[in-house]
Structures are given as C-alpha cells and as structure tokens.
Amino acid sequence: MPFAAREFPAEPAGRLRHTADVVPLRTVWWFWLLVAAPWACTPVASPPAVERMAAVAAAPAVDAERAAKLLLAALDGEALYTLADGTKPVSEGFWHGWVRVDAPDLAEVEAVRAALAPLRTDDLYADVTVFDAVHDGKRAAQAFVIDRRALAAALTRHAVFFAPYGLAPSAHPCEVMAVVERMPKLDRHRGHGLLFGYPVHAVDFFVAVADTPGEGGKPAQRRFVQIPTFASPTGRFVYAVPPDAPDRPEDQALRARTEPVLARWRELRAGLDVGDLAALRAAVATLRREFAERVAVGVAGKPRAVALRPLAFAGG
Q1: How far is CA 62 from CA 57, 112, 245, in A?
Q2: Which of 50, 93, 145, 175 could form a disulfide with 126 if both were Cys (CB 3.0 to 4.6 A apart)?
C-alpha cells in the first residue's frame, strides 16, 4: 500500500480509495486520512513445527472460495512484497469493510478473519483491523498481512523509535499494529512508513511536511516513486520524495528487489487456476522458497537465494 495511504471502500462518499482510475493525491497517502486505530486482532500463536500436521488436521474448515479471493487480491497488490519476501514487512487493504457504530454487525469481519487463517503461520500473520475513527457513523475495517521475520527486523533496525513504545522484536504482530495506530499523529505516520517498508528518507520527508502546508495552503510539492504491482503499475506501492530529488541508492535497491518478485508472480499466475486456494498457497510457498531467504541482490536485479524449508499453512 502507498506510503501514507490508507485504503478505504467506496463508501461513505468522500473517503479515499486506491484504484487505478482515481487521481494520485487521492490514492497514495494514508497520512491525509489522519486516523488512529485501536482495534482488535486475533492473537493466535503459531504451533511448534512438530505439531504442524496436527494443527492442520484440527483447524476449523476454511471458506476456500473466500480465502482464495483474499489471497489473490493480496498477491495481485502490494502485499505480494510481504508474502514473497518481506520487502514490505506489513501490507494492508486487500479487503475493506465497515462496521456501523450504532448497530455493529461483525459477521463479515469474522468471516474474513477466519478466511485469513491459512496465512497465520510460523512465517506470516494475517488478520483484520477495525479503526477507531468514526466516519458517518461507521468505522473502517481492513485486512492486513505481516512477514514475521521482516517485522522483527524492522523493530530491531529502528529500535530507537519503536522501543520507547515497548515494541520489541518479540512483540506479537497485533500488539505492534495496535500500538502504532495509537501513537501521536506524526509518530503514527513514521511508524506506519517504517512498517510498510518505505525508504527512511521518504519517511523523513513525509513526517517533515505532514504539518507544513505548501504555498497557498496546498500540500507541499513532491514527486511520487511508484513500485508496480500486478493489479496496477501505479498507486499501490508508492511513496513521495521532494520534487527535484534524484533517485537514491535505496530507491534503486527497492526496484531491484521487487522487479524479479513481480516478474516471477506473473509467470506463476499465468499457469494457475486463480480460484484454487491450494494452487495459490503453493505459489506463495514457491515465492518464499525463491525470495524470502535472499541475502543480496545482484547488479542485474537477480536474487541470490538459499534453501528454505517448505512453507506449511495451518490455521490458528
């Protein structure tokens, strides 16, 4: 999802939505929404490896059709870069919903949460967030997915920022997301930018201009850096930099890291029955085998990989 962008469904009118046919400023910045989100997750720990087969057998039945649609939406969007290798430690927005405040009906939220169970593993965690901000009597809900190892690495790398909030690398993904959502506005923007995998210079730029309007009260000028996805070449994985800023090594490295992932997903997708949950799971396992253990990116953008144990999907 775009840096500083929160993705909302089409209603209520006036909210932002990330699609390929809306203007860029309405699609790329979650920070214009200014939402804080205390929300509930389903903190279910992954079973030890020795118990994985038993967990699969004991897991409740999953709505395979719904689960396949969710997983396909994630793979076709920016969550590909979370599922494949954790380039984005966190991705959101591949499902949207609303919860009415006066007459809450959580059936759809619970159904989506249950359908995300195949993505709660030793390596990944997926759930639904419900935001605190109320718009026209409703709270927005979104699905998210996390690469556990990439999240822990981000918390370690940026400990100076996260540790004062009590967020250690061992923190549960839901705790991390909830605490960041409750941070003061500018810290929340920085926290989300770091979790969503944007270069630090882009996060610094956004935080610096978030409360500093440009000429005539308009947003400060900026140039958008776009990382393509299968669903759209623009507006999904995108961040802003100063208008005259050249590409930095971090920007070039991000492109080099993501390009082969998208190319491989295009290859895999072409041969898939995209409505088959088992086939989509297998595709995620293939992507992670090929990319999640990368230790370097070559000059041509080709990954160097080492063997990764098979990715098992289990509910819980």
Answers
A1: 12, 10, 47
A2: 145
Average pLDDT, the chain: 79
* pLDDT per residue as tens digits for the range 209-265: 998 766 666 778 899 999 999 999 999 999 999 999 999 999 999 999 999 999 999
Distance of alpha carbon 112 from alpha carbon 121, whole angstroms: 17
Lowest mean pLDDT among 51-60, 170-179, 240-249, 268-277: 51-60
Q: Which of 283, 276, 233 lies closest to 258, judged by CA? A: 233
Beta strands in the chain (DSSP E): 90-100, 124-135, 138-147, 223-227, 237-241, 296-297, 303-304
pTM of the model: 0.76
Cβ burial 124-159 (10 Å sphere, 16+ → b, else e): bbbbbbbbeeebeebbbbbbbbbbbbbbbebbeebe
Given a contact cutoff of 8 angstroms between Cβ atoms, the answer to whether 155 and 168 are in contact is: yes
